[in-house]
Amino acid sequence: MPKNYEIKCRISSLSGIKKKLLSDSKFKYSVEKQKDIYYKVKSGRLKLRIINDKNSDLIYYRRNERNRERVSEFIISSTLNFRELDFILTEQFEVLVTVIKKREIFIKDNIRIHLDDVNNLGKFLEIEIMFEEINKAKKLMKELTEFLNLKTKDFIKSSYSDLLINKN
Fold first, then answer.
1. Do 118 and 100 touch, CB atoms closer than 8 A?
2. What domains does the chain contain, in order, with CATH numbers?
């Protein structure tokens, strides 16, 4: 399974970080409206991500939820028939929670930076680094967090699904 190393933190404003990222022409920029439907499964996490009401990804992942800097193993399967897939999944699994967000995405090489405005939660920044060697990913993460003036103490370990469940 592919792996990524990630951090997440709550931020008060997306504009300053967005401006910094847009100043680096190597980042590819896009915006998506995402709806993540999480299903109750026996291990790991399973979600159907519907993107711009057009296509979707079924994402299964496992990660240690105790650390603020997290390593995930994941599998992604894409489909254009998300309504049918959601019907099948909902018939087989209980829906745990639904997360709706606007996501601004910056991609460069093996780096994905997300500026998220999550319904009922607020604004967040996520950095994900796909890796084969964790030490290289940690070094790159350190460089990115310094570039964006992020503080380790501000990192959160909870997923949006957990934050919404705990809020309700």
1. yes
2. 3-167 (2.40.320.10)
